Amino acid sequence: MRILTFLATVALFAVTSCCAPNSQSQTTLPKKDIGIQLYSLRNRIKTDYAGTIALLGEMGYTAVEAAGYGDGKFYGKTPEEFKADVEKAGMIVLSSHTSKALSDKELASKDLSESLAWWDQCIANHKAAGMQYIVTPWMSVPKTLVDLQTYCDYYNTIGKKCKDNGLSFGYHNHTHEFQKVENQVMYDYMLEHTDPQYVFFQMDVYWAVRSGNSPVEYFNKYPGRFTLLHIKDQKELGQSGMVGFDAIFNNINT
């Protein structure tokens, strides 16, 4: 299985921007498929949307992962406009971070129809933008395993809706998912109680390591579940010395 990676760090963007080729005399390196998470540029893109998208294409990125969906638009643009802008810069719109948390009422009643109706429109808009993946980037730690199971069921249903529309649905971690809920590690529970045909996981390797866990151990324990990765570090890649990128890249297709 091919694993797709996104660079997700503000510092990396700054360094790469400074080092981007600006002279025909410089050696042209082979182009690689590397996506960038636009959340890393959230402040810049607010003030210079067009310039930021254009610059990313010039720097050699081949795909973007959006993090600005709201009210049916991406960064204030219709799905079709956003797709056209990214493709004009020589990239593809590959993925998007977006989410809708369940209300206390929904958790108590198990009636998720209101949130699922929101997802119907969300999925349609992402499909119109050319997305292949929708990723939920955050959820709070549930108070009980019953609530966590409700979220797993919720994600399974969203994932099926996505699959029926030609998209894939996943979940992105931070550090708090490695806490325990009623003596069960939340992240492990989610991996074991979501359906692999409907839900994949986008491991953020930096946050996994910061939580005291090994990405490679998770690759081996749950093979085939990690379709996308976020590759980042505290600042520039490799600077912290804590992430172990060689081991990650050598085991990325587990």
From TrEMBL:
InterPro entries cross-referenced by the UniProt entry: IolE/XylAMocC-like, Xyl_isomerase-like_sf, Xyl_isomerase-like_TIM-brl
Sequence ranges assigned to domain Xylose isomerase-like TIM barrel in this UniProt record: 54-252
Keyword Heme: no
Gene3D superfamilies: Divalent-metal-dependent TIM barrel enzymes (3.20.20.150)
Single GO molecular function: myo-inosose-2 dehydratase activity
Keywords: Lyase
EC number from the UniProt entry: 4.2.1.44
Transmembrane segments: none
Protein name (record): Inosose dehydratase
Species assigned in the record: termite gut metagenome
Taxonomic placement: unclassified sequences, metagenomes, organismal metagenomes
